[in-house]
Predict the structure.
Amino acid sequence: MTKLLLVNNYNNSARERFMRLVSSMRRLGVGVQSSDAAQVKPEGFKNFDGIVLSGSYDMLSRSATQTKYGKEIELIREATTPVLGVCFGHQMIAIAFGARVVPSPKPVLGHYKAKILRPDPLFKGLGGSITIYESHHEVVDAVPLGFEQLATSSGSEICAMRSPKKPVYGVQFHPERSSRENPDGDRFLGNFVSAVRTGLR
């Protein structure tokens, strides 16, 4: 069975948001182990088929937050296992590879249309645009050097990105916040699992 490590970056008062991500991944038939960010061990990323980094209410534009999550950011930089960063996780990937996170012009909350800019296995079968749920106060300022931008929306210019050199993806949206009316997030997560199973590189 495919084994995923889900890293929880939320504090205890918002743990139900992390559990929604856990439930979404379990519905896809994978083995899921969760770990709070502070408990992730240096060897932890190597023992799983894929890693998913959750959102958070912390603000990565602040140097104190970058210090707080320094160990996780370093693990992202060194990872060879496929990594998917969700919202705050996406922003951590940007920080890990030298980009900046800055405040949004205004808070973003709700469903948005994201335009797919280039084909990728994670957007397989989703057409030229998808409906996504965004909830954030900060955004990635620019695509990290060497990364490719995959999607954009009115809520976040850099809505999705990946490294072409290693299987590291970041999305500013919350694919786990999908519904019967807006199922694209679940389809996106399903594509991530399928890509991991077939050897995403």
Q: What stands out?
A: The beta strands are 3-8, 31-36, 50-53, 83-86, 101-116, 129-140, 148-153, 160-162, 168-171.
